């Protein structure tokens, strides 16, 4: 499959289940390998990934619900909880700060470059999950949930939560994608 074909299949799937079409180890190995392969400026390796499955998946989404004190719909949270697992994307700010100190000329750019790498990691994992026959979506409940998630998974303070990606079996097809790019792509010759 070409990268374009894979990207066309990658969609935000919200109706997710726990019926994996592949072995769990295949999914976890893919996430690990992709994290290793995605580039990072100055090879800083600032990306951190936590994959919650099983009891950790349930605890994660219950923790997220509790962090909002009931101000988010339980049904919405339970939809994400119904997924097989969730990939949590972080940037290790200690790594970024270390490179800012080491290469002062570029100090302002390291947080930007870390965000760019995190975005590349997200799209690569998201697209690869789809190639494995899984659906996923990206959520941004941070920063409200940051401290609760760090406590739940005993993570260092230096981990900055960027996004949450529930993934699982596709229980219903997503809505059609808007294909109009006339206001987004401009070709100049």
Can you offer a commentary on this structure?
- Helix 2 (24-37) runs antiparallel to helix 6 (110-131) and helix 3 runs antiparallel to helix 4.
- The chain is globular, with a radius of gyration of 18 Å.
- It contains seven helices and five strands, in the order αβαβααβααβαβ.
- Strands 1, 2, 3, 4 and 5 form a five-stranded antiparallel beta sheet that branches.
- Helix content is 43%, strand content 16%.
- The relative contact order is 0.23.
List the helices and strands and how they pair.
Elements: H1 3-9, E1 16-17, H2 24-37, E2 47-53, H3 55-67, H4 74-81, E3 85-92, H5 93-102, H6 110-131, E4 135-136, H7 146-153, E5 159-170
Antiparallel strand pairs: 1-5, 2-3, 3-5, 4-5
Secondary-structure element string: HEHEHHEHHEHE
Profile the largest sheet.
5 strands, antiparallel
Mean pLDDT: 96
Helical amount among residues, as a percent range?
A: 40-55%
What is this structure, in a nutshell?
The chain is built from seven helices and five strands, in the order αβαβααβααβαβ. The chain is an alpha+beta fold.
Highlighted features:
single chain; 189 residues; alpha+beta; 5 strands; globular
